[in-house]
Structure formats: C-alpha cells, structure tokens
Hints:
Layout: E1 2-6, H1 10-26, E2 31-34, H2 44-54, E3 57-62, H3 70-82, E4 88-92, E5 110-111, H4 114-127, H5 134-162, H6 172-194, E6 198-202, E7 205-209, H7 216-233, E8 239-244, E9 249-254, H8 260-272, E10 276-281
Parallel strand pairs: 1-2, 1-3, 3-4, 4-5, 7-8, 9-10
Antiparallel strand pairs: 6-7, 8-9
Amino acid sequence: MKVFLSWSGKYSQRVAAAMKEWLPLLINEIDPFMSSSIDAGSRWQAEISSELEKTDFGIVFVTAENQGMPWLNFEAGALAKSVSQSHVVPLAIDLKLSDIRNPLGQFQAQELGKDGVANILRAINSSAQKPLVDELLGKALDMWWPDLEGKVEAIRRESLAQNKGGPPQRSEREMLEEVLSSVRDLSRSQRAVLEGMQTWSNVPFRYEARSIPMPPSEKRRMQKFMQDIAQLIRKDAPTVTFEAAGGRGLKILLRDELSAETSVELRDFAAVNDLQLEIVVIPAMGGDV
C-alpha cells in the first residue's frame, strides 16, 4: 500500500523521514514514499506523477512556517485528485488544527500526537488489502509509539534551538496589519500587470519582473509563477528580480546563493510546472539588484 509523504522545509522533512521509517513497523503492507527518495538525475516530474498514480493515501506534514508554501499545497492538491479527500490528511506538527489555513484547511487534519497518529493509522489500515484487527493495531501502536515520539521530540528541540525558541507570537493588530498590507500589495500588483510591467511586494520579501512581452493570459500565468517562486525562496533571497528567457523560461537574479534545501524545492517546482529556470547570483554592490 503506497503512502505519499508530502513535506516542505527541513523541519517537516525530518519529521516525514522519521515517519517513513516508522510506519512499516506497525503495518507491514505500507510502502511510504517522499520526494527525497527520488534518485539524483531522475526526471522529478515524471517520478512524482508516477508515484501519485500509485498512491493510496497521503500525509501532508504541516508546520506554521510551511503551510503557505506553493510546493506543499501543490502536492496536497495533486493527492486529492489521485485519492479520495478522506485519504489526504494534513499532520499538524507545531500548530493547532484551527491554525491550518485553506487550502489545507479543507482536509480532515490531525495533530502530531499519539491520538492523532492513531487516527491516521486506522484510516490507512481500513484501506489496506489485509487490514489488521483493531486490537493488534492498538498493541503495535503502544509498542512503537515511544520510538517515534522520541525522534520527533529530538527534532523539535533541535528546530527550536536553531530558531532561538521559535517565531515570536504576533498580536491581533500585527496580523490585521499584515492582511491589510497584503491586500494593498495585491491591488498594486494587478494594476502593474495591466500596465505591462509586473511588480509585487510583500514583507518580508520583494521581487520585480522586468518588462516581459507576451500575451496577457500568459503574462498573468507567469506572474503567478513568479509570486510562488518568490515565496518559495524568500528565506534565502528577500529580494529577487526576474527576466524573460524565452518561451517558458525565466532568469532569476539573486544576491546570494540558495541553500541546498531551497534549490531542491525550486527544482521540483520548475519540473512540475514545466518551467526553464536560470539562476544568476549578482552580489550586492551598495544598492538593489
């Protein structure tokens, strides 16, 4: 039974990897898959599409940081098309279920705890060709849960240490101001598209696309791709500039190199959307790129 594990970001990747090793200990029929399992040099888009076709169940590893990431939402949407919606379960790692926003919020999520994982196991088991009786599944969970719990807690401690205690809690006023800022930025973005020059800004990152001649419909689609890419790489590149590179190609001008993790996610995004990306690093010289 194929179980697709969707992740975005190092924190959720490590939790997903721990779950990948742990799930078959309870239900031997489970064959977990996550995108980091793809061999180097493979055609990522074809490999992922092939795995989605064979998938019976999907677990989306959600954190407060990654739930808005384009790649995570793409895989969740692709999973929903491949299996029934009840077989796609967001797993909340460091946030409450009520904090999960749409589109992930439309699925029946579970928290990363023994009860939440038990619910996921029961859902997977009910879809298995040879399901375990509830009593045996419960005993297996009691036996193996401390193993997963210990690994997840170690990952959580390391993540909190790296982030110096985690992101600060925001006041309601700060969140309302962010929403208002986003609405204003979106309005400016839409006006810019009509004027033929695409720009978009939203704290804490900014990008601009130098005038790209193309039909209006294609221009709007490329605008969306650029917004998604800017969101995906904003940790490594708070400022990014795009230039047309012919056809469905984009040249991405950056001040700094992307991390290995971000580079993998960007490569996945390009493969899935059939984009040709060229990254050029231009160190800052006292001003914006």
